[in-house]
Input
Amino acid sequence: MSILEELNGILPDGAEVTPEDTWEMLRRRITILNERAWEGRNRWPDVEHWLANFDGRSGIDVDTERLHALFLLSQFLYVGSIETRVLLQSVFRDLFMAPLIQEVRASLGGTRDAALIVPAVELALQRTRFLGVGNPSESGVHLLYYFRQENGLSKAQFMDATAMFARSYLPDGTTVPTLGNPDIDRYVFIDDVCGSARTAISYSKNALANLLELKPDAKLYYLAMFALQDGLDRVRTESVFGERCAAVFELDETYRCLSPTSRYLHAAPPHINGDQLRMMVRTYGALLWPKHPCGFNDAQLLLGFHHNTPDNTLPVIWREDGAGVSWFPAFRRYAKL
Output
Protein backbone atom coordinates (compact mmCIF):
# COMPACT_ATOMS: atom_id res chain seq x y z
CA MET A 1 0.00 0.00 0.00
CA SER A 2 1.39 3.43 -0.97
CA ILE A 3 1.62 6.35 1.45
CA LEU A 4 -1.15 8.12 -0.51
CA GLU A 5 -3.45 5.15 -0.04
CA GLU A 6 -2.58 4.99 3.64
CA LEU A 7 -3.20 8.71 4.13
CA ASN A 8 -6.67 8.42 2.68
CA GLY A 9 -7.62 6.32 5.69
CA ILE A 10 -10.47 3.85 5.72
CA LEU A 11 -14.03 4.98 6.35
CA PRO A 12 -16.98 2.60 6.45
CA ASP A 13 -18.55 1.86 3.07
CA GLY A 14 -22.29 2.39 2.82
CA ALA A 15 -22.59 3.52 6.43
CA GLU A 16 -23.05 6.90 8.05
CA VAL A 17 -19.70 8.39 9.01
CA THR A 18 -19.61 9.33 12.68
CA PRO A 19 -17.33 11.90 14.39
CA GLU A 20 -15.51 8.91 15.88
CA ASP A 21 -14.86 7.56 12.36
CA THR A 22 -13.43 10.92 11.29
CA TRP A 23 -11.30 11.08 14.43
CA GLU A 24 -9.86 7.63 13.77
CA MET A 25 -9.12 8.45 10.14
CA LEU A 26 -7.32 11.66 11.16
CA ARG A 27 -5.43 9.86 13.93
CA ARG A 28 -4.20 7.28 11.44
CA ARG A 29 -3.22 9.98 8.96
CA ILE A 30 -1.18 11.83 11.59
CA THR A 31 0.51 8.62 12.72
CA ILE A 32 1.57 7.91 9.14
CA LEU A 33 2.71 11.51 8.58
CA ASN A 34 4.80 11.38 11.74
CA GLU A 35 6.47 8.16 10.60
CA ARG A 36 6.92 9.07 6.93
CA ALA A 37 7.20 12.85 6.68
CA TRP A 38 7.51 14.61 10.05
CA GLU A 39 10.80 13.00 11.13
CA GLY A 40 9.19 11.70 14.32
CA ARG A 41 8.41 15.20 15.61
CA ASN A 42 4.84 14.38 16.71
CA ARG A 43 4.23 10.98 18.22
CA TRP A 44 0.70 10.37 19.40
CA PRO A 45 1.35 11.24 23.09
CA ASP A 46 2.73 14.62 21.90
CA VAL A 47 -0.35 15.14 19.74
CA GLU A 48 -2.59 14.40 22.72
CA HIS A 49 -0.61 16.92 24.78
CA TRP A 50 -1.18 19.54 22.08
CA LEU A 51 -4.88 18.68 21.79
CA ALA A 52 -5.26 19.27 25.54
CA ASN A 53 -4.71 22.99 24.82
CA PHE A 54 -8.21 23.07 23.36
CA ASP A 55 -10.55 23.15 26.34
CA GLY A 56 -13.74 24.77 25.07
CA ARG A 57 -12.74 28.42 25.40
CA SER A 58 -14.06 29.13 21.91
CA GLY A 59 -17.57 28.26 23.08
CA ILE A 60 -17.55 25.07 21.02
CA ASP A 61 -17.85 21.65 22.63
CA VAL A 62 -14.41 20.36 23.69
CA ASP A 63 -14.64 17.15 21.65
CA THR A 64 -15.64 19.15 18.56
CA GLU A 65 -12.78 21.59 19.12
CA ARG A 66 -10.28 18.77 19.36
CA LEU A 67 -11.64 17.03 16.28
CA HIS A 68 -11.15 20.27 14.32
CA ALA A 69 -7.69 20.75 15.81
CA LEU A 70 -6.76 17.23 14.75
CA PHE A 71 -7.94 18.00 11.24
CA LEU A 72 -5.84 21.18 11.21
CA LEU A 73 -2.74 19.28 12.28
CA SER A 74 -3.37 16.58 9.68
CA GLN A 75 -3.01 19.24 6.96
CA PHE A 76 0.33 20.60 8.18
CA LEU A 77 3.03 20.73 5.49
CA TYR A 78 6.36 19.82 7.06
CA VAL A 79 9.50 20.32 4.99
CA GLY A 80 12.13 17.95 6.37
CA SER A 81 15.90 18.03 5.98
CA ILE A 82 15.88 15.92 2.81
CA GLU A 83 13.15 18.01 1.19
CA THR A 84 14.98 21.20 2.16
CA ARG A 85 18.12 20.04 0.37
CA VAL A 86 16.14 19.14 -2.77
CA LEU A 87 14.43 22.53 -2.73
CA LEU A 88 17.77 24.31 -2.42
CA GLN A 89 18.97 22.44 -5.50
CA SER A 90 15.93 23.78 -7.32
CA VAL A 91 16.57 27.33 -6.07
CA PHE A 92 20.04 27.22 -7.62
CA ARG A 93 19.28 25.25 -10.78
CA ASP A 94 15.85 26.58 -11.75
CA LEU A 95 15.68 30.05 -10.23
CA PHE A 96 19.28 31.19 -10.69
CA MET A 97 21.27 29.11 -13.18
CA ALA A 98 18.61 28.68 -15.87
CA PRO A 99 17.93 32.45 -16.14
CA LEU A 100 21.68 33.17 -15.94
CA ILE A 101 22.42 30.86 -18.86
CA GLN A 102 19.66 32.52 -20.88
CA GLU A 103 21.11 35.93 -20.04
CA VAL A 104 24.60 34.83 -21.10
CA ARG A 105 23.29 33.37 -24.35
CA ALA A 106 21.45 36.60 -25.12
CA SER A 107 24.62 38.60 -24.49
CA LEU A 108 26.40 36.34 -27.00
CA GLY A 109 23.81 36.87 -29.70
CA GLY A 110 21.68 33.85 -28.84
CA THR A 111 24.43 31.32 -29.53
CA ARG A 112 24.11 27.66 -28.59
CA ASP A 113 27.87 27.08 -28.82
CA ALA A 114 28.89 25.54 -25.49
CA ALA A 115 32.50 26.58 -26.10
CA LEU A 116 31.34 30.19 -25.79
CA ILE A 117 28.59 29.77 -23.21
CA VAL A 118 30.42 27.70 -20.57
CA PRO A 119 33.35 30.07 -19.93
CA ALA A 120 31.02 33.07 -19.88
CA VAL A 121 28.76 31.38 -17.32
CA GLU A 122 31.78 30.38 -15.22
CA LEU A 123 32.99 33.98 -15.25
CA ALA A 124 29.54 35.19 -14.18
CA LEU A 125 29.58 32.69 -11.29
CA GLN A 126 33.02 33.88 -10.21
CA ARG A 127 31.55 37.38 -9.97
CA THR A 128 28.51 36.19 -7.98
CA ARG A 129 28.09 35.95 -4.22
CA PHE A 130 25.35 34.08 -2.34
CA LEU A 131 24.06 35.52 0.92
CA GLY A 132 21.39 34.77 3.50
CA VAL A 133 18.57 37.12 4.40
CA GLY A 134 18.92 38.55 7.90
CA ASN A 135 21.68 38.32 10.47
CA PRO A 136 23.96 35.26 10.80
CA SER A 137 21.69 33.58 13.38
CA GLU A 138 18.58 33.57 11.20
CA SER A 139 17.23 30.87 8.92
CA GLY A 140 18.16 32.47 5.59
CA VAL A 141 21.84 32.38 6.57
CA HIS A 142 21.52 28.92 8.14
CA LEU A 143 20.36 27.51 4.77
CA LEU A 144 23.55 28.57 3.00
CA TYR A 145 25.49 25.62 4.44
CA TYR A 146 23.13 23.15 2.77
CA PHE A 147 22.84 25.33 -0.33
CA ARG A 148 26.63 25.17 -0.82
CA GLN A 149 26.78 21.41 -0.25
CA GLU A 150 23.88 20.49 -2.52
CA ASN A 151 25.04 22.65 -5.41
CA GLY A 152 28.77 21.90 -5.24
CA LEU A 153 29.76 25.51 -4.73
CA SER A 154 32.98 26.90 -3.32
CA LYS A 155 33.12 28.67 0.04
CA ALA A 156 34.60 31.62 -1.85
CA GLN A 157 31.24 32.11 -3.60
CA PHE A 158 29.55 33.03 -0.30
CA MET A 159 29.65 36.27 1.59
CA ASP A 160 28.44 37.66 4.88
CA ALA A 161 26.29 40.76 4.39
CA THR A 162 28.78 42.89 6.29
CA ALA A 163 31.48 41.96 3.76
CA MET A 164 29.58 43.78 1.01
CA PHE A 165 31.13 46.99 2.33
CA ALA A 166 34.53 48.30 3.38
CA ARG A 167 35.91 51.71 4.29
CA SER A 168 38.66 53.63 2.54
CA TYR A 169 40.82 56.26 4.20
CA LEU A 170 41.12 59.69 2.61
CA PRO A 171 44.34 61.75 2.87
CA ASP A 172 42.82 63.82 5.68
CA GLY A 173 42.25 60.70 7.77
CA THR A 174 38.48 60.49 7.27
CA THR A 175 36.87 57.37 5.86
CA VAL A 176 34.30 56.77 3.15
CA PRO A 177 32.26 53.62 2.45
CA THR A 178 33.41 51.49 -0.46
CA LEU A 179 32.57 48.06 -1.86
CA GLY A 180 34.08 45.08 -0.13
CA ASN A 181 34.78 43.52 -3.54
CA PRO A 182 34.21 45.79 -6.55
CA ASP A 183 34.47 42.83 -8.95
CA ILE A 184 31.22 41.27 -7.73
CA ASP A 185 28.34 41.86 -10.15
CA ARG A 186 25.60 39.69 -8.65
CA TYR A 187 24.37 39.36 -5.07
CA VAL A 188 21.92 36.48 -4.55
CA PHE A 189 19.92 36.37 -1.31
CA ILE A 190 18.48 32.99 -0.26
CA ASP A 191 15.45 32.59 2.02
CA ASP A 192 13.20 29.78 3.20
CA VAL A 193 9.82 31.51 3.01
CA CYS A 194 8.55 34.89 1.86
CA GLY A 195 5.32 35.69 3.66
CA SER A 196 4.62 39.38 4.20
CA ALA A 197 7.86 40.39 2.39
CA ARG A 198 8.73 42.60 5.36
CA THR A 199 12.30 41.29 5.69
CA ALA A 200 13.16 41.53 1.99
CA ILE A 201 11.75 45.05 1.69
CA SER A 202 13.47 46.22 4.87
CA TYR A 203 16.78 44.82 3.62
CA SER A 204 16.19 46.54 0.32
CA LYS A 205 15.66 49.96 1.87
CA ASN A 206 18.77 49.80 4.02
CA ALA A 207 21.88 47.81 3.12
CA LEU A 208 20.99 47.21 -0.52
CA ALA A 209 20.12 50.84 -1.19
CA ASN A 210 23.63 51.69 0.04
CA LEU A 211 25.10 48.98 -2.18
CA LEU A 212 23.41 50.38 -5.27
CA GLU A 213 24.69 53.85 -4.51
CA LEU A 214 28.21 52.43 -4.77
CA LYS A 215 27.49 50.08 -7.69
CA PRO A 216 24.34 51.11 -9.60
CA ASP A 217 24.68 48.26 -12.11
CA ALA A 218 24.81 45.49 -9.47
CA LYS A 219 22.27 42.71 -10.04
CA LEU A 220 20.35 41.77 -6.88
CA TYR A 221 18.31 38.57 -6.50
CA TYR A 222 15.86 37.35 -3.86
CA LEU A 223 15.18 33.60 -4.15
CA ALA A 224 13.04 31.58 -1.73
CA MET A 225 11.88 28.01 -1.37
CA PHE A 226 8.29 29.09 -0.61
CA ALA A 227 6.45 32.38 -1.01
CA LEU A 228 2.94 33.71 -0.72
CA GLN A 229 2.02 35.19 -4.10
CA ASP A 230 1.04 38.57 -2.65
CA GLY A 231 4.27 38.70 -0.63
CA LEU A 232 6.38 38.00 -3.71
CA ASP A 233 4.44 40.65 -5.62
CA ARG A 234 5.36 43.14 -2.90
CA VAL A 235 9.04 42.25 -3.22
CA ARG A 236 8.82 42.86 -6.97
CA THR A 237 7.11 46.23 -6.63
CA GLU A 238 8.48 47.64 -3.36
CA SER A 239 12.12 46.54 -3.31
CA VAL A 240 15.27 46.90 -5.36
CA PHE A 241 15.07 43.22 -6.34
CA GLY A 242 12.37 44.00 -8.89
CA GLU A 243 11.80 41.10 -11.26
CA ARG A 244 14.85 39.23 -9.97
CA CYS A 245 12.86 37.51 -7.27
CA ALA A 246 11.23 34.10 -7.37
CA ALA A 247 10.24 31.05 -5.34
CA VAL A 248 10.22 27.34 -6.06
CA PHE A 249 6.65 27.16 -4.73
CA GLU A 250 4.33 30.17 -4.94
CA LEU A 251 1.41 29.73 -2.55
CA ASP A 252 -1.85 31.25 -3.72
CA GLU A 253 -4.91 32.26 -1.70
CA THR A 254 -6.04 28.64 -1.34
CA TYR A 255 -3.12 28.02 1.03
CA ARG A 256 -4.64 30.45 3.54
CA CYS A 257 -6.31 27.71 5.53
CA LEU A 258 -9.27 29.78 6.79
CA SER A 259 -10.02 31.66 3.56
CA PRO A 260 -13.26 31.14 1.60
CA THR A 261 -11.20 29.39 -1.09
CA SER A 262 -9.17 27.24 1.36
CA ARG A 263 -7.95 24.05 -0.31
CA TYR A 264 -8.01 22.35 3.08
CA LEU A 265 -11.68 23.03 3.75
CA HIS A 266 -12.65 22.24 0.17
CA ALA A 267 -11.85 18.56 0.75
CA ALA A 268 -12.54 18.38 4.49
CA PRO A 269 -13.85 15.05 5.83
CA PRO A 270 -17.32 14.67 7.42
CA HIS A 271 -17.96 16.59 10.66
CA ILE A 272 -15.37 19.27 9.89
CA ASN A 273 -17.14 22.63 9.70
CA GLY A 274 -15.38 25.67 8.25
CA ASP A 275 -17.14 28.21 10.45
CA GLN A 276 -16.35 26.27 13.61
CA LEU A 277 -12.72 25.85 12.55
CA ARG A 278 -12.37 29.60 11.93
CA MET A 279 -13.95 30.47 15.26
CA MET A 280 -11.73 28.05 17.15
CA VAL A 281 -8.48 29.14 15.46
CA ARG A 282 -9.21 32.85 15.85
CA THR A 283 -10.30 32.54 19.49
CA TYR A 284 -7.17 30.71 20.60
CA GLY A 285 -4.97 32.68 18.22
CA ALA A 286 -6.18 35.92 19.81
CA LEU A 287 -5.18 34.59 23.23
CA LEU A 288 -1.74 33.51 22.03
CA TRP A 289 -0.81 36.40 19.73
CA PRO A 290 -3.43 39.17 19.88
CA LYS A 291 -1.91 41.21 17.04
CA HIS A 292 -1.67 38.27 14.64
CA PRO A 293 -4.11 35.51 15.71
CA CYS A 294 -3.90 33.77 12.32
CA GLY A 295 -0.17 34.17 11.76
CA PHE A 296 1.89 37.23 10.92
CA ASN A 297 -0.01 39.55 8.59
CA ASP A 298 -2.95 37.11 8.60
CA ALA A 299 -1.00 34.62 6.46
CA GLN A 300 -2.97 31.58 7.79
CA LEU A 301 -0.28 29.12 6.72
CA LEU A 302 0.15 25.50 7.79
CA LEU A 303 3.85 25.27 6.96
CA GLY A 304 6.99 24.36 8.87
CA PHE A 305 10.58 23.37 8.26
CA HIS A 306 13.11 21.03 9.81
CA HIS A 307 14.99 24.08 11.09
CA ASN A 308 12.04 26.19 12.27
CA THR A 309 8.36 27.08 11.96
CA PRO A 310 7.69 30.51 10.41
CA ASP A 311 5.49 33.01 12.23
CA ASN A 312 3.27 33.13 9.12
CA THR A 313 1.91 29.78 10.32
CA LEU A 314 -1.08 29.70 12.70
CA PRO A 315 0.04 30.45 16.29
CA VAL A 316 -2.04 27.54 17.61
CA ILE A 317 0.51 25.29 15.87
CA TRP A 318 3.76 26.79 17.18
CA ARG A 319 3.15 29.24 20.04
CA GLU A 320 4.47 28.50 23.53
CA ASP A 321 2.91 30.16 26.59
CA GLY A 322 1.97 33.28 24.65
CA ALA A 323 0.48 36.40 26.25
CA GLY A 324 0.19 34.72 29.64
CA VAL A 325 -1.54 31.63 28.18
CA SER A 326 0.00 28.22 28.85
CA TRP A 327 0.32 26.40 25.53
CA PHE A 328 2.10 23.27 24.30
CA PRO A 329 3.17 23.58 20.62
CA ALA A 330 2.73 20.94 17.95
CA PHE A 331 5.70 22.26 15.95
CA ARG A 332 7.92 24.55 17.93
CA ARG A 333 9.07 27.93 16.65
CA TYR A 334 12.46 29.31 17.64
CA ALA A 335 11.66 32.99 17.78
CA LYS A 336 13.95 35.90 17.01
CA LEU A 337 14.91 37.59 20.27
Observations:
- The longest strand covers residues 219-228.
